Queue: 4 jobs
Job 1
Amino acid sequence: MVTIKDVAKATGVSPSTVSRVIADNPRISPDTKKKVRKAMKDLGYHTNISARNLVVKSTKAIGVIMPSSADKALQNPFFPEILRGIGSVTHRMKYSVTLSSGQTEEEIYEEVQRMVFGSYVDGVILLYSRLNDRVTNFLIERGFPFVIVGKPYENVNGITHVDNDNFTAGKEITEHLIDQGHEKIAFIGGSKDLFVTIDREAGYEAALQEAGHEVSDSYKIHTEFLKSGGREAVENLMSLKTPPTGIVVSDDLMSVGVLSMLEESGVKVPRDVSLVSFNNVYLSEIILPALTTVDIQIHELGAQSAKALIEKTVNKTEPVKRISIPYEIVYRDSVSRLP
Amino acid sequence: MVTIKDVAKATGVSPSTVSRVIADNPRISPDTKKKVRKAMKDLGYHTNISARNLVVKSTKAIGVIMPSSADKALQNPFFPEILRGIGSVTHRMKYSVTLSSGQTEEEIYEEVQRMVFGSYVDGVILLYSRLNDRVTNFLIERGFPFVIVGKPYENVNGITHVDNDNFTAGKEITEHLIDQGHEKIAFIGGSKDLFVTIDREAGYEAALQEAGHEVSDSYKIHTEFLKSGGREAVENLMSLKTPPTGIVVSDDLMSVGVLSMLEESGVKVPRDVSLVSFNNVYLSEIILPALTTVDIQIHELGAQSAKALIEKTVNKTEPVKRISIPYEIVYRDSVSRLP
DNA sequence: CTGTTAGCGCGTTCAC
DNA sequence: GTGAACGCGCTAACAG
């Protein structure tokens, strides 16, 4: 391994000078810079990150914490996409990304501990938000920089997070259904202790109420991830005395499941029932019918969270921020107009 | 930050003793161990990873390199799953995972350089395999430990990689179609410079030939990822004088696209045409019809690659390995028996 | 503008 | 069984 000393020796300067040209210190003469740079290239010098980290007490690395695999959501294309969003800014800023690898809540907690205590990373992005989460509490206690993608459960004004306005998005997409003449509209969401679900559902209800349409409990179903359980729920829903003509589903992937169940029961989308959902994942475009869905700009969600985090790590006094990423409804073929 | 010295002072021993109990050195008396450990806990000591890395010249970290986003495949649920597989062993071994964040081939190349030269990681997992890849060549030149998930393009016997036997898998799944009475079988695959595609396709052809069925070029279509271009291709396929009654698709996600196009053209699966594919991603289970597909055990692919890599990093003389992960066909509802 | 010195936190001789 | 001393590669004063 070629070190700063080697370069120094080869150039006939001192190690600190070499260090300075690496930092592009303005007080170094252009000549020596040139010389040193040449030597670095010739010798194949590359700065040793551990050594630097040790002294500057910073790692230029951020940790990204995925939800525990209890949240089966991992199969959701949401994650690769948000990772890419994060990557787009970390790469630009020459930061690196350390991914959590724990599967259970406990494992993740330990991992985050190592990350912060061991000085693995300068800050952390939480890709989930759970009530009473040990990790979150830990981070707060330690005053360690972190941002949440989504809405924090507690201390909303004290935790910088980046999110969509899921309430309004839910309202708007429901209104679209209403505009198309639908009155009987159902909601199918994931676990109701996820804020996304709660917010989107609240928006759905608001739209209904504003329009003066009934919001009935039998129209709202929550199901982990669509398998056996979800199937019954959907069947029940459609065999109500007055089945819905429109459904708001909280997530594209879930929509795929709902779609299958619906078709299986002989109801066609959008002929018999209209469907809208959220995320605008690639999938929603290639499925039949293509989904009308709200594009929440996952990539941007990731990018902004990384940006906010990095700002926080370089400037600890950076104020808490609530960043809202605009969404946009993309209209496709899963909705039909009612007479 | 509480260091080894602090613990030493608090315990009345020397720093080196503390270091030894951390390493669980057997020549330390149980008593002092106990004492020191208590102090560590009390003071909240955590070993500083940078400092340790600096001296031991190892990072206990591995880099995971995703394909450039030119390979639009990133939306594929394959990636989160393989990441989880990798995570399952890195976590157990207390390794950490650094994710590449570059988007273009060039960016990724630079990134890998930093990773290896800067001693960010001990080894690297390549989640793709491209012909004449700079990254691969670089890694080889430097003699840096790495493993490929998939089949290397060159030097197959010189690069440890973990893969499925895609040829046989392709053959077997095609044979399943044949067993069900199909003779006219088409193949739809992704880019034909991906080895997965090549191998699976070869298997498909082999099955056909062995069964004495025609393998026609007009039955083989390659399309990046199914959008406009793919649509036409599928339409052409189905409007051949003798359209296929069965289709082998190289990937579940792609199957979803094919399925849509088929239905759009009024052909029903599996009534009019049978469909099989690969990967057994969660999606293939919730779609209608549920896909008959070969489960390639993505999670295991990830886990084994991490395991192999770690072994390589701890023991540089570890021999090159070709690890083949068994696959298994899971039979669902996308195939019908021909009379 | 540049060199010298010191020290980041840890592991590892080599003594005792 | 334990301590003292040194060095990993780098940056940051402090000189000059």
Job 2
Amino acid sequence: MAVTLADVAARAGVSAATVSRVLSGNYPVAGATRSRVLRAVEELEYVVNGPASALAAATSDLVGVLVNDIADPFFGIMASAVQSELEPGKAGRKLAVVCNTGGSPERELTYLTLLQRQRAAAVVLTGSAVEDPEHTAALAARLRRMAGAGTRVVLCGRPPLPEPGGPDGADGPGSTDGSGDADGTAAGPVTVAFDNRGGARRLTEHLLALGHRRIGCVAGPVERTTTRHRLEGHRAALAAHDPALLADADRLTVHGAYDRSSGYDGALELLRRTPDLTAVLAANDTAALGVCAALRETGLRIPGDVSVAGFDDLPFSADAAPALTTVRIPLHEAGARAGRLALGREAVPPGGMATVRTELMVRASTAPPRTGRAPVPSGGPTR
Amino acid sequence: MAVTLADVAARAGVSAATVSRVLSGNYPVAGATRSRVLRAVEELEYVVNGPASALAAATSDLVGVLVNDIADPFFGIMASAVQSELEPGKAGRKLAVVCNTGGSPERELTYLTLLQRQRAAAVVLTGSAVEDPEHTAALAARLRRMAGAGTRVVLCGRPPLPEPGGPDGADGPGSTDGSGDADGTAAGPVTVAFDNRGGARRLTEHLLALGHRRIGCVAGPVERTTTRHRLEGHRAALAAHDPALLADADRLTVHGAYDRSSGYDGALELLRRTPDLTAVLAANDTAALGVCAALRETGLRIPGDVSVAGFDDLPFSADAAPALTTVRIPLHEAGARAGRLALGREAVPPGGMATVRTELMVRASTAPPRTGRAPVPSGGPTR
DNA sequence: CTGTTAGCGCTTTCAC
DNA sequence: GTGAAAGCGCTAACAG
């Protein structure tokens, strides 16, 4: 059907092996022969058969990038950065496979299986991980197996995997061969973590310094590492400032997804519970936009009546009105680093983990609380 | 090294062929045998070798999705939609490969080669196409070849490919086999186009109806189909309303990328050229945010002094302050449809092309022009 | 430097 | 219903 190596070899008057060598370029070939082969390739419009070469060479040039939501720029930026590192010299070009898990543990595993089938050269898991112990164990086992088989595993924006840990009886055979395959490339998973805790803590300290005491939190989904870390940072700041503030923390916290409508709904719920709150911390910038919309529709001014802060510092945050105070995560740098790690082009950090610093970006959406503000105007939101 | 089909067969006490049949499920196998095989698979933690099976079956389960900028939600939303259609029943699961071309023609071709190597089941090209004749011809030829080889080709958000057209001598052998390979699946490229022209036209008509006459345009990159179509729609509306308006059209148009800073810079340039303009049309919503920022920093109010409109209706547009008047493109629906077409799960529309309607979304950023407004305040932007 | 020779792991007729 | 055998197209030792 299609043109094969043999066809090219025939036309160039050489053996298939020679054509293969010319194409992969990792072997000495006479200049004359090489150009003759190249010409034949051109003339026949030959295109290497990927599966065949992957089968014979037992390697593939696929790199999987798992994201929780590709429509969210948070992931788009990281994916783009990972991919930008995947094309060094024309030769070792890798193909990034972006897989959208939708945040579902099952799909995460499913895609990993697909990637495993393809004998992917590496996989990069981005964003928060689900904290269900069962899933975590299954995921860790799967990733360890892939790493053992030579696939590089990089975690970007989530904490390291738990160690093999506790005994795990009732398992099929072959479950004890966890040790590396004497392969050399089979280092365990590498992590590029974000300092969500520190960022959240600094953000809350900023609000506290401005004089806020009743700070609402529209947190992310429960059972997610990122959600937990940001909340922990927030509460640590509260505790350090005045342990008494912790008393109201639960009432001042609602959970939702990392999206606009969760911010909108969450803000309304918070306002219902605590009409006199003076600030709202959103799960991320996207949710912050929803919070702002809800406040505005309720008749509250930002930051006059209520201060609002986001997280991530996505591109649109600086352009929101008012510009959003948020915590910047160097997503591009983190993704690029993950990409290099996935290719083995960067030394693995000590302990297999690097933490990316986050930076507080103070902008117009936060200001000192207005003392003695009247509670929520009657009427409620207009939508 | 890894567990193979033969290992599973041995453990289950059957032949490799039987295991293969059980796994692919497209062949009658005795119930008892099937469960025995399945158990062996479980116990051995067997994972199919993708390349090997792709080689033997001469098909792959990869679907390539080419995007111009994965960090842009415009593409993220479409990619996500395409992918969401790629997993019907557990069985025929396809793996979406999102490739970021960065809008570069070379990379577009490079990725297509990579996909061709992998014998991708389908490729979906999203977003605007570069209009360089040479590239267009190369791209069309390449896509036709892939389609001829059985790969489904879908264009989403760009116009159909040109027909083979003019004679193209001086070509290698095998360049005349363009006709389908009697394969059945080898239909030519299918297109899901956006009605950019109509949307732009309606947007401009809206502005015209409000009373605007000096409308600036921060258009997208030159030589891009989307840019040209939106500009054509704009000018058609102008011409229909009053041909005299066309005279200033060129002076009132600047080009940039589809990003925030292009909108920012473009708005300043437009203001410099035409201080008394009363409205600005941005290339897309992201650029519109930049336009708004520039206007605000210049001391102009939106829509009081200048109306602003975007294009695409990305999620954040409704939350901008003021909420952005824009043209909604049903990106998710379009992407989903492209995904179904790529899988052959939806009938090819007549003529191989479907046009997705666009919808004018009138919000708060556009209003009647203020008559007799004073020109740009002195001082200029503060950044 | 180049050709020969074996497979890589799976799918798929064709017999039984 | 199941097994046997013949490749799919390429790479990777070995010879020469």
Job 3
Amino acid sequence: MNYWLMKTEPDTFSIDDLKAQKTSGWDGVRNYQARNFMRDDMKKGDLILIYHSSCEVPGVAGLAIVNKESHPDPSAFDSQSNYFDPKSNQDNPRWFMVQVKYKAKFKAFVPLSQIKKEKKLQDMKLIQKGNRLSIMPLEKSEFLHILKLANYSLT
DNA sequence: GCCAACGTTGGC
DNA sequence: GCCAACGTTGGC
């Protein structure tokens, strides 16, 4: 079992949108490192922190789970899509995604400012200088500590 | 809106 | 393979 953090801009797709849809293909990722995590490493049942970025108060908003493992991102084939990539095609897809399933919206949102203050979270990739990855692995201890801050318990 | 930091592109 | 130019991310 692995643990992940996935960023999303809530103006585009928020934890509330995921809650309403229940499941969603995580399309539109156009960064190779993030793609590789989805294509190679994210397994069904892995748990995911959903992070709101580029918004008034950035931070961790909720929890999701990998529902379907890697498959080609169809938005890359759609010339009408913002995520269209003419270099990707059905025979040789360049971009992959996983499908995620809603688990919870945290009652206690965990803001980035709080994460930065937590001694136990200082090694998180999220707060390393210059890191812009939209999908990143978490240590189990980091994952659990954030659940604690969110006042959320698994089971 | 600013801007630091990073990733990608493409000429050479 | 180098690297300048450009585009994007994302916090502030």
Job 4
Amino acid sequence: MALNAAIAQRLEEIAKMIEVLGEDQFRAISNSRAARNIDALPFDIATIADDKAKLTEIEGIGPKIADKIMEFAATGKMKEHEELKGKVPAGLLEMMKIPGLGPKTVRAIWQTLHITTLPALKKAIEDGTILTVPRMGEKAAQKIKQAMEFAAQGQARLWLGQAVPVAERIIDVLKHKLGKKVKHIDYAGSLRRGKDTIGDIDILIATPDIASAIEAFTAMPGVVAVLAAGESKASVRVRTDVDLSRWDVEDKTGPTVQADLHVIPDASWGAALMYFTGSKEHNIRLRQRALDRGLTLNDYGLFPDDREDTPPQQRGIKPVASRSEEEIYAKLDLPFIPPELREDRGEVELTATPRLIEVGDIKSELHAHTTASDGSLSIEALAAMAKERGFHTIAVTDHSQSSVIANGLKPERLLAHIEAIRKAQEKFLNRSGKPEITILAGSEVDILADGTLDYDDKILKQLDIVVASPHAALSQDGPAATKRLVKAIRHKYVHILGHPTGRLINQRPGLDPDMAKLIAAAVERRVALEINAHWMRLDLRDTHVRQAVNAGALIAIDCDVHAPDDYDNLRFGVMTGRRGWLTPDLCVNTWPAPKLHEWLKSKR
DNA sequence: GCCGTTTTCGGCCCGACTGTTTTCAGTCG
């Protein structure tokens, strides 16, 4: 879906350029909204790029933007975009990416000092000429300088698995310092919605002792800078520390992240939690819905709308609902909407809360490595940990021969490994000789660049489970990737397509296959598509899961265990599944042993 | 530039914080 991304990027840039030129800002908002919606589309826009009627059916796309899409799809150019680029120097768009620098300020800097690049901006801050810009003082200049330095450090967004431990650590610190004075505390934002990357961490607290909360937050360990500390809000930059040893990442200590603490009145906890959880698009949708019902919604509650300028809570108006998210949704005639669904992707049409998958539903791990290839656990240790988690089945799926770096198994070693797995099974039998946990002999077999598998059929047939995954040739083009992966799905011995695109978030984009074709093949062959739960992968991603679920495809959520801690990544895989509206029935890992084993045998 | 069971024209979510101002503009979420 390279076209979706290319169009979205241009529309977003058009929006930014309109803003910096100081032209009609509603036009800017429209372009930006269209860009977001196109980026979130679950299908390739190329398939309807010659059909104006279909294009305008997409939310936020009217006749003008449809024309722009058709023009770009046909010619690879967008005239409006190019004309604006002629008027707006590229450096201005870079400047707007710096936190604290918005369109108005960038425009003012451009108009007064004719500055159009980041280096020139830096120089103007250093020599003080920036102070001649209207409304620009010493403090603002220093803030911009600091923000530029943070931006230069690179990675803007944190991995989900990096951010969650930081948020939990902050909550622990505040709970410890404030004890019983904490009425409510939780994290909100994209973290609570389970997005694969996180911009910043939002912590909400309800407590009578506001001063102590702000003090504890700004003074906690790991804080490198206090950005703001007001009466009801504080912002800091805090260090992250996560073991990244499985992949070779340059900065092993991890970057810093902005964390915001919002102090919330106890009575408006639900309204604030909802507001700060977002998404922005979901909130806008709810506010609109409130207005339609003669109500107005803000972060203090849902109030009767009397069209006064002063906010209702400041005039002592009693809210219709405010204490819990549940009661606010109810007053808006909606079921409770789980945070992972709050993306304005149709959830506001729901009439009942869907029973989404939960961590507790998972009863098996179907993708795990041992010391035979690149894992750190023995077969027995792997199985013991799975049993401890209440799983009925664990699949040992070490790498195949082509994965040389991962110590992949040549056929002879694989055959010996199968024997070792059968032996290990004997150690996990109860008194009546029944398995306490079923240990499957499997393999994570490489899908070679042309779609053939890394072992021949004679070998594959002897395995209880085959997870087929792409590991090399991850930069081949979309059509080649589609052909390759569909061929693997159609292979008679394959059960699961492992990390289908091979992406590493923030590191490499991975394959860009035609998902609709992959899903269709998977549905037909009853092959499960994996959500790899490692937070650097989360592959399938949320939008792909949604597509697969809509088509009725089977999904596997697996931790791709290499070390003991990897089992803990399950929750990130489950969050991604929930973002894709995944219900337990479609997820093979939730199936009871007989049903799972029967499915596996149906491929033999 | 999009959108519409009050509208095909006239709207477009709402509040806190900061810094630069003397009453508010800009940015953010």
